[in-house]
Amino acid sequence: MITVFDRPEALTSAKTHYCPGCTHGIIHRLVAEVIDELGVREETIGVSPVGCSVLAYNYFNLDMQQAAHGRAPAVATGIKRVHPQKIVFTYQGDGDLAAIGTAEIVHAAARGEKITTIFVNNAIYGMTGGQMAPTTLLKQVSMTSPQGRDAAPQGYPIRVSEMLATLDGPAYIARVSVHTPQEVSKAKKAIKTAFEYQMAGVGFTLVEILSTCPTNWGCTPKESLRWLVDNMIPVYPLGVKKMVEGVKV
Amino acid sequence: MAKVLMKGNEALAEAAIRAGCRYFFGYPITPQNEIPQYLAKRLPEVGGVFVQAESEIAAINMVYGAAGAGARVMTSSSGPGISLKQEGITYMAGAELPCVIVNIQRGGPGLGGIQPAQSDYFQAVKGGGHGDYRLLVLAPATVQEMVDLMEKAFDLADEYRNPVMILGDGILGQMMEPVEFSEEKETLRQEKPWATTGAKGRNPNIINSLFLDPAELEKHNHHLQQKYDRMGKEVLWENYQTNDAELILVGYGTSARIAKAVVDQARAQGIKAGLFRPISLFPFPKVALQEACKKAECVLTVEMSMGQLVEDIRYNLEFKVPVHLYGRVGGMVPATRAVLEEVKRLVNSGKAGENP
């Protein structure tokens, strides 16, 4: 018998707590597959955030640190400065990264910290029950924007990848999605490039991954994929936002 | 090794290097800037890393990451910055990570001022951030003691896997005194099998303070409390002229230096005064304090606060001896003359033995 599909070594056998239709599971798997393919599972240290993926340390079969809300890039900076030869990544949601942790991500990027950030953007606070996030779209209904997000009192969604791409420190920044098998495949390629760029020592790397939250968006998993395509991608266009040329990986 | 004349802040920084510290993450704030400035120059010379963080919050979380990665690491700040660091400090206490944090105290509350104070005592010895936790808190009174305690601080941090705070003040940080350093110890290779270094040939290590199961979290808290109880043997103190003292002055750090001069002057005027100086503020040298105050009719704490240490002195003397307070705040420093007047007033009033 030939095994054609199995759990990556970089994932544990623990059952995840993620809701049905949430794409965190796919993204975890992509990160794990990339780590396995690069053969760096025993050289990698991950940092989990506060938010839906707070328990990522139970799911990745790696050395992991759990960080305070928004501080994962600072924690990763501390780890990488001690172990410059190891691979260090953070796994963060949009509330963690683009609200409470804005200073930490901007300055880790500006310093060109040789880490990789996996930024999962589902336009809402999932763990706490669906409150408005910094990435919540205009008119999007959430528990704290019950009439729909209105720019006048509540401001505009932040395009993190485009913002960070203006800095000199980042070496690779891309936005991808996982709503179809084709996009999943592109997402994996982007994650792999980010890790390879980190290993090449060129600078800060980030992959923003658009993700669904059927539970807090109030729709079925299938509907949520359609909602992402119709509403998120126009505001958060996919593609490579920054890529330093001439890097041999 | 010959003695050198150094500022307290710089001596602390050099002592950290001698103690094997190779990583510093911090943010500028007066009156401790000489620490990061010294280390920005010195750490690269010894193969270490200095990072000026974007905030105090980022700095302490970099310390968290580096400590979790197995390094000897430190940060330093003053009141407003230490308040910002409380988030990372409680996470480090919860995740049992060793580090050294220096607080060169200045006047508060709020932005307060930049002159010396001791008004962060409660914050330092009662935990400081959310949750039940403690720091080991060491309070030097001379530049030499800053050096000696710095070396000890890193060893204690590693031994107990807990943050250690050096509680100084703007005077100690800025004053110059002759100091002598011991040779650097071979402490860098201390085994930390729990650190996240990449799970090579072993199960993954996880640095974490989250326990969603209440029973597990209670168990974790009990484990931490047992550790804090074990720290009790680390008590440090100094007695000065306490054997026959009828009035005991109590102070730490800069205030203790002033109180010591007061003891001499009081004795010259026939008043049997003595000084008890706690060096470890947590754990507090309770038994030694009680012993020193055995013959005392009263105690007078001298502190640069509105009365913080005084509460712990009353508590640790179990309210058996009246404890009075002489405090100056806002960057104002107790004058020897004024404290002596207070001593004489207490003695002559005939009310020294009554509760204030």
Automatic annotation (TrEMBL), chain A:
This is 2-oxoglutarate ferredoxin oxidoreductase subunit beta. GO terms for molecular function: oxidoreductase activity, acting on the aldehyde or oxo group of donors, iron-sulfur protein as acceptor; thiamine pyrophosphate binding. Residues 55-208 form the Thiamine pyrophosphate enzyme TPP-binding domain. GO terms for biological process: cellular respiration. It holds the Pfam family TPP_enzyme_C. The keyword S-adenosyl-L-methionine does not apply. Keywords: Oxidoreductase.
UniProtKB/TrEMBL annotation, chain B:
It holds the Pfam family POR_N. The keyword Oxidoreductase applies. Gene3D superfamilies: 3.40.50.920, 3.40.50.970. One of its GO terms (molecular function) is oxidoreductase activity. Residues 14-199 form the Pyruvate flavodoxin/ferredoxin oxidoreductase pyrimidine binding domain. It comes from the Bacteria. Keywords: Oxidoreductase. Residues 245-335 form the Pyruvate:ferredoxin oxidoreductase core domain. NCBIfam families: PRK07119.1. PANTHER family: SUBUNIT OF PYRUVATE:FLAVODOXIN OXIDOREDUCTASE, SUBUNIT OF PYRUVATE:FLAVODOXIN OXIDOREDUCTASE-RELATED. This is 2-oxoglutarate ferredoxin oxidoreductase subunit alpha. It comes from Desulfosporosinus lacus DSM 15449.
